[in-house]
Design brief:
The chain is mainly α. Helices cover 80% and strands 0% of the residues.
Length: 135
């Protein structure tokens, strides 16, 4: 039953986003509306997931974090749950970054590197030879 309610919440959210986007509503207004819905159902985990999902889809995770931090700092009754949701938000953001991370580029040696290495080797060997065979 929990899964069905989450699916319904996500379907409703997606529908709302499409309608709002088509009617020219700004992302900030969508976040404001999602926050109002969340505050009406603060103790519902699905409401928090829907809010985070909305913010993620709009590229507004920073705004979600700001709102959760504000609640954590100003509302002693909801502070603990706001901190928990803030941690979940950060974990989701990090997971999203990790998923989109491009592989580290392979470091290649350029011909200039080998020329510089050869020159340095010749200079060191020349100095060593001069110190051993010098006057």
């Amino acid at each position: 039953m929990h899964v069905v309610s989450l699916k319904q919440a996500c379907a409703h959210l997606c529908h709302d986003l499409v309608v709002a986007y088509a009617s020219g509503v700004s992302p900030t207004e969508l976040v404001d509306e999602a926050w109002r819905r969340l505050e009406a159902r603060w103790h519902d985990a699905d409401a928090h997931r829907a809010f985070r999902s909305t913010c993620a889809s709009l590229g507004k995770l920073d705004e979600a974090a700001r709102r959760y931090r504000q609640v954590a700092e100003s509302d002693p009754v909801r502070a603990a749950s706001a901190r928990t949701e803030l941690e979940a938000l950060m974990a989701e953001a990090l997971a999203s970054l990790a998923a989109t991370r491009s592989p580290r580029p392979r470091r290649t040696r350029t011909p200039l590197f080998f020329v510089a290495l050869s020159l340095a080797t010749v200079l060191v060997l020349g100095a060593l030879w001069a110190s051993l065979h010098g006057s």
